[in-house]
citrate synthase (unknown stereospecificity)
Amino acid sequence: MTERYGEPSVGDVADWWRTSVTRIAPGVVEHRGVPVQDLIGHTDLVSAAWLLVRGDRPTPGQARLLEAALVGSMDHGPQAPSIAVARMAATCGIGINNAMASAVNTLGDSHGGAGEQCVELLAEVVAAGGAPAAREVVAAWRERSPYLPGFGHRFHPRDPRRDPLLALVARACDAGDVAGEHLAAALAVEDALAEGRPRPVPMNIDGATAVIYAELGFPPPLARGFFVLSRSIGILAHAWEESGSGRRNKGPMPPSILPSYGDRP
């Protein structure tokens, strides 16, 4: 190995995990160059998360927007697969960290990925010329898939989280904290989807938070990352509640209900 790579030095080893996120030394913990003791008691968790991920500080208005997105996505009850998995796992004799990990691992493209995909959609609309290009972009997306991420909801005719989140974005636009391009793009997509329909197809929580993440300049993968961070709070709450139920090996259905047997239609 040394013939191929040369003799490793202490510097080679130290540079192996080189990072600008956190510096650790005896008696020292710094996040992005800021001593942790200067953050504790002076910086809220959302602003600290922004600092750690982005390396700079949000304005108060930007921090409020990010916090609102995280609050809006925390939980949607046991009908959400991630929450159901957390509760089932908690009855299987594993630790709460294992229950949370089991639940987080269900947050994929279909359950948990719509926010990331919607940021990509909105970015495409903005890149194509903004709101006037929405119909064209929607048509192109529909050629690839009948599903448009971030719009419509299987339970809510109008997602109760849409209006307050978008109102906060509009307020942030007026204050100059965000530009508003992605908000305009999302509203234009809503209008395009409503054409020819007896009922509109409003944004859901994934669409509304995608507007926020896009307006704040987060790349699409970070929209999913922040959704996972937010939903982990609900996962924790449900796993903890279920762990106190006294039930063991709780399955997806009550024992009195058996799954149908036979070929799937």
User: Anything to note?
Assistant: DSSP finds 13 helices and three strands in the chain.
